[in-house]
Predict the structure.
Amino acid sequence: MLIKTPRSWELKESDVTDEQAFRQRRRLLQAAAALGLGAALPAHALVGPQGGGRPLPGLRDTAYGKDLKPTDYEDITSYNNFYEFGTGKGAPARNAKDFQTRPWTVRVDGECDAPGEIGIEDILTGFPQEERIYRFRCVEAWGMIVPWDGFPLSRLLARFKPNSRARFVAFETLYDPERMPGQTRRVLDWPYREGLRMDEAMHPLTLMVTGVYGKELPGQNGAPLRLIVPWKYGFKSIKSIVRIRFTEKMPRTTWSDMQPSEYGFYANVNPKVDHPRWSQARERRIGEGLFSGKHPTLMFNGYEDEVASLYKGMDLRRFF
Ligand code: MTE
């Protein structure tokens, strides 16, 4: 008999939570906390949606990270990297406030049998936002525990029928200097570009993210849709995507073009491989305060069991 052991990202139907149930549970938890019962409850359960866009439909939590205390919504949405809206960490929140994300279409082409376009409304309604992934780590040795909401990228890609020559997937952000004022400065070679190997792109933990804390993504976090590859450094998680292309050759990517000695194509979180200018062995958590101490960085950001097999036999110092 085959006994199926659930992987950390797989959960039972009963784990699905809709907005109403989420709010109700939150009220109960708040009442419990007021009675001093909070310590018995998972820390993340006490934090709920704190703003943002429209609520997203049914979501389920991935098991991994549920015991970690999520970073506050306020910190997730005010300390950002999004050079299209300025290079300071506070600039995206100020400059992307009114970013218009409708209408929005994503073109998918290259090595596939069914190239085409898909609109954001079809993405939101055609691919239920049913996964929730915790954890995010930037290359600059800081981390957050973010309840990202989305669905596996593989589902979207399958619709366009990649062919046997498709070995990589390339992504591009919108290029529109009127809507993205940071693009009037040549701080990067616009548009922002990223890429994954096909097996990485098809991995169930690689998410197309449309929300955070159960609400649509705010502009500064990459509205209306971004990538999250939870075992990689944050720069792989390209925001505000308009183009996806299947390629035979490894695609060019923004940061590995800019600084090839510092940023590699793979960018897997790895405490043993330092960035040339700083250690990657420990991480500071945003929102915990300067004196709270650092946390040890986990191999593949804590997803080692799930993803290490993708890199079997590869020298991760060379392919960083
Ligand atoms: N995507 C685009 N288009 N432009 C960017 O400047 N910055 C990257 C990544 N995606 C970036 C981007 C970097 S360096 C990081 S660390 C994360 O987005 C930050 O995501 P967050 O602001 O939601 O934390």
